[in-house]
From TrEMBL:
Its cofactor is Ca(2+). It comes from the Bacteria. Monomer. PANTHER family: ALDOSE-1-EPIMERASE, GALACTOSE MUTAROTASE. InterPro entries: Aldose_1/G6P_1-epimerase, Gal_mutarotase_sf_dom, GH-type_carb-bd. Keywords: Calcium. The keyword Calcium applies. This is Aldose 1-epimerase. The keyword Calcium applies.
């Protein structure tokens, strides 16, 4: 039987929704006040997600790594935080000061409210809600954003729903920024279907497209990755010595986007599905537009199997 408990912390940013299933040795932890981010996913006592600790140190970790953050209204970077939409220029907050970019959208540090939760013998579901009345610097548009997490045996689904609650259209994209833990990244294998990727300038902004630089399936070995791949299929597979997983994300377009990053400590890997490219507000690659009262749904499915 799944169970859900709500844990309050003296620092509300560290409040937790904890989902467990003793029989499956399963545990998931969501932080509603850190953009409804998933900071733990463990099955059969094998940790898949490399999340933050429940401490002030963990908060600093989140601020620098954006672990498991939900990326909206854009994933990755907007060059100098500047873009134009329908003849109007906008200036976003610069939160990547070293490169003078706006990074990872505007909701990664927002407070979500619990809309509903549900548990049974074979499933747990949690829905969290956030509303913005157009008060964000550089993104003066009203919207409602909902995330529905569904946990079943060997599978997790993330369902995103964005509603334009304002009177004018807005540009947007969505992404998810999880880090996956592995004790031996050298032996881990990443697979996806792509023929092209981006080249980046000194500000980590796409400058051009090039043929894929890596042969897939890619055994990570000593390879350093901080790349955005233009995938022909919205899916990827990752194999470690501890577990395998398949990650699929919905896409109505021919191309989709996958950002992959290997941190210097090499104890995890960020595998980030995205609906659009970095700097999409300017280069328009994969950029979506939502009309007033229009709703957009996006789904990610993570199917996993431990090897023990």
């Amino acid at each position: 039987m799944y169970q859900i408990i709500n844990i309050k912390h003296k620092n509300p940013l560290l409040n937790q929704l904890i989902i467990t299933n003793t029989a499956l040795k399963f545990k998931a932890i969501i932080y509603p006040n850190l953009g409804a981010s998933l900071q733990k996913l463990s099955s059969n006592e094998i940790d898949l997600i490399d999340g933050i600790s429940n401490s002030e140190k963990g908060l600093n970790d989140y601020k620098s790594t954006y672990k498991s953050s939900i990326l909206f209204p854009f994933p990755n970077r907007i060059h100098n935080g500047i873009y134009e939409f329908k003849g109007k220029k906008h200036k976003l907050n610069i939160n990547e000061t070293s490169l003078n970019n706006s990074l990872h959208g505007c909701i990664y540090n927002t407070h979500f409210t619990l809309k509903n939760d549900n548990v049974s013998n074979d499933k747990a579901s949690v829905t969290l809600h956030y509303s913005n009345k157009g008060t964000t610097l550089g993104f003066p548009f009203s919207y409602n954003f909902e995330i529905n997490y569904i946990f079943t045996r060997h599978k997790m689904s993330l369902n995103f729903a964005v509603l334009n609650s304002g009177n004018e259209a807005f540009p947007f994209g969505i992404g998810w920024h999880p880090y996956f833990k592995t004790n031996n990244i050298t032996e881990s294998v990443l697979d996806f279907n792509a023929t092209h990727q981006y080249l980046f300038n000194e500000q980590m902004i796409p400058s051009s497209k090039t043929l894929l630089k890596h042969r897939t399936p890619l055994k990570i070995g000593a390879t350093f990755l901080d790349d955005c791949f233009i995938t022909n299929k919205p899916a990827t597979n990752f194999k470690t010595l501890e577990y395998d997983f398949d990650l699929e994300f919905s896409s109505k377009e021919k191309e989709s986007y996958l950002q992959v990053y290997t941190p210097p400590h090499r104890k995890s890997i960020a595998i980030e599905p995205m609906t659009c490219a970095p700097n999409s507000f300017n280069n328009k690659d994969g950029l979506l537009t939502l009309q007033p009262n229009e709703k957009f749904d996006w789904e990610i499915e993570l199917s996993y199997q431990s090897k023990y």
